[in-house]
Write the structure tokens for this entry.
Amino acid sequence: MRVIFLGTGGAIPTLERSHPSIAVFFNGEYILLDAGEGTQKQIMKSGLGFARLTRIFISHLHGDHFLGLFPLIQTLSLLRRKKRLEIYSPAGLRDVLHELVSKAYLEPRFEVEVFEINEDRSFDFGKYEVNMFHVFHGDTQTFGIRIKEADKPGEFDVKKANELGVPITMRGLLQKGMTIKTPSGRVVYPEDVLGPPKKGKLLVYSSDTRPCKAVVYNAKGADLLIHDATFRDDLKDRAEKTGHSTVGEACAIAIKAGVKKLALTHFSAR
């Protein structure tokens, strides 16, 4: 898992910070967490390219978190994309997308499937699992996003495989978790030649939120927590009124959750 911050600004972008968007790269593909204005340009700058983008997760329907979707879809269409694009979002995005596409003549040349979420949900994509859970951002339905990378096979024991008579051509099957039968008739299980599984990484993105128990719970022991830090600590009153967090509050959540690393995001233009 590799994380690339495409935009870490707040509601108003600056010359140094674009609207919120985070790319999470796995082997052969990447997903986006939010897609604020300017996301496609940031993708170009990052060198990620567009071909390997498979899914986009929108945390909530505030413009700074999703208005980059439409120009991105248009660009993908102009590039003659054929592969389906999946978008996961709170309810309401499908109608907005349909309205804009029809009025602006942006009908994509590829399938765009929108999955609208009204409650906490989990999605298993094989390489990784995504949990969308409610956080507290005032009256706006907002989801935090938890990404658990699948565990990877343990180290392959070549010496043991040789002892068991496993042909080189069959070793890849064992590494994929499959049981095999050698030419001599011996049944070999993956655990016979593989060490303990390598635990997948855990990433949690709070999105816009006040400090809440849901983030602490979902981020327990996370390798990386990306948390809203819109305001300085001396602007806590402002954070409370707008449903955001201060830098100090984000740090306190990270400590409670026992995360390994904390990244702050959604910085106010102040």
The longest helix spans residues 93-103. The domain at 2-151+199-265 is CATH 3.60.15.10 (Metallo-beta-lactamase; Chain A).
